[in-house]
Amino acid sequence: MSKTIHEIMKVSPVVPVMVINNADHAVPLAKALVKGGLKVLEITLRTDAALESIRRIKAEVPDAIVGAGTIINIETLNAAIDAGAEFIVSPGTTEKLIDAALKTGVPLLPGVADPSQAMALLEKGITAMKFFPAEAAGGVPMLKSIGAPIPQITFCPTGGVSQKNVNDYYKLPNVGCVGGSWMCAADLVDAENWDEITRLAAEAIELATA
Q1: Are 40 and 65 in contact (CB under 8 A)?
Q2: Other CB atoms closer than 10 Å to residue 32's CB: what's the count?
Q3: C-alpha span between 129 and 86 (Å, rounded)
Q4: Which of 112, 132, 199, 204 has its CA 20 to 30 A from that of 176?
Q5: Rg (CA), the chain
Q6: Angle CA(178)–CA(18)–CA(104) in degrees, nearest 5?
Q7: CA-CA distance, 16 to 39, in Å (whole number)?
Q8: Separation CA 127–CA 119 (nearest Å)
Q9: Does the global pTM surpass 0.90?
Q10: What H or E segment, with its residue span, contains residue 154?
Q11: Nearest to 10 by CA among 135, 129, 206, 175
């Protein structure tokens, strides 16, 4: 039985946000992250290699929970699900996209940047959301402010989250996990430095939960 979005958010404290330019890097990258303890992976649909990367990780890295990010319309929603994405993440919301996503039954993490957007999704029964772009949208103070009147929402802040502030976000009571890309930076992937990626993945867990 597939996990709910809330269950997925509890698997790892940090979700790597992965931009993969070469599908041949997908499996070794995923294995390096999983080895470091990060099992929930978000592949952003920003490159031509993204959908193939999801297919390969789904087939070859059984310990990973692979999802698709940058879902911005019904076309990308359907493409991600066809590729085997186990959850979907959007940077923002439109009623058309959210309604279509809910009909699929695939776990959904829609993006919001303010209380009004969060309340609109809450009306649809959605209680797990991506807070994006986290730092630009007010960061930790904004999440604290939203959490006071709307405590039933659990967030995954993404965008500007780094080694320096990951713990500040993760320790908030309304944060289930955080999204970040520093452990799978483009230069490390291009250099195929899988050992360093594994080290940074393990370190990310320690930093978040310190």
Answers
A1: yes
A2: 26
A3: 16
A4: 199
A5: 16
A6: 80
A7: 9
A8: 10
A9: yes
A10: strand 154-157
A11: 175
